[in-house]
Write a structure and sequence with these properties.
mainly alpha; 11 helices; about 80% helix
Length: about 230
């Protein structure tokens, strides 16, 4: 019974946020099958992400002289870049050229769905090894972080989709991935730095998450405004 409760708590946060995102896109809802495909690919994305992280992690020994630099490397390159890069590739390879991707808001939706699939599987793996308390903590921290970082990246992918020229399109893509890595890496670095600075860095997670949420909400408003202005939404 405890295992089932832990599993439910691992999955529930991702499904709740997914429901919220689908409501945000109710103006012209996306094909359910495509949304489910992106979510499942996000779940499966944990495998290439872990393999890539193992490969990149092997380079961390270059900074053997500074544990703090190792923490930075692991936070921003091993964890953030590898994981956000996988989410980016899922959106780009699966839906970016799909006719269903016809609004800026769709970039946010599909990126969040990929992020939630990834976070859901990551949560299951953590919770199965650690239990209910881990599920509860991650429900309010790691899962929303994955969704917020991916959503902000998705906003820029939506802008890229309707960019006036290839140069601007590429610029938006790079900006989106950079912001996602910055948010994700900042989150992980605050946790990884606890051994050096004690529990104080964990307090900074609150303003980081609040700022990321405000940026995410602003991205949704801007995406909807852009879509209405271009006649893509009623």
């Amino acid at each position: 019974m405890l295992v089932l409760i832990s599993l439910g708590m691992a999955v529930a946060p991702a499904l709740l946020i997914l429901g919220y995102m689908i409501r945000q896109d109710r103006g012209r809802p996306e094909p359910k099958g495509l949304v489910m495909l992106v979510f499942l690919l996000g779940l499966a994305g944990i495998v290439p992400a872990v393999l890539l992280e193992i490969l990149v992690e092997s380079l961390a020994s270059v900074f053997y002289f500074s544990p703090l630099l190792i923490a930075l490397f692991r936070a921003f390159l091993v964890a953030a870049l590898c994981e956000e890069g996988i989410k980016y590739l899922i959106v780009m390879r699966t839906v970016y050229r799909n006719p269903a991707f016809d609004e800026v808001m769709d970039g946010i939706l599909y990126a969040v769905v990929a992020g939630l699939g990834f976070a859901c599987m990551e949560n299951i793996l953590y919770v199965m090894g650690s239990g209910v308390l881990t599920a509860l903590l991650r429900a309010f921290t790691a899962v929303p972080m994955h969704a917020l970082a991916a959503g902000i990246m998705g906003y820029f992918l939506g802008l890229a989709k309707f960019a006036p020229n290839p140069a601007r399109e590429q610029e938006y893509k790079i900006r989106g991935l950079t912001w996602a890595v910055f948010i994700h890496g900042g989150y992980d670095f605050l946790l990884f730095s606890i051994p050096f600075w004690g529990p104080l860095p964990a307090l900074a997670l609150v303003p980081l998450m609040v700022c990321a949420y405000l940026a995410f909400r602003k991205s949704i408003r801007r995406a909807l405004d852009a879509d209405r202005g271009a006649g893509r939404l009623p």
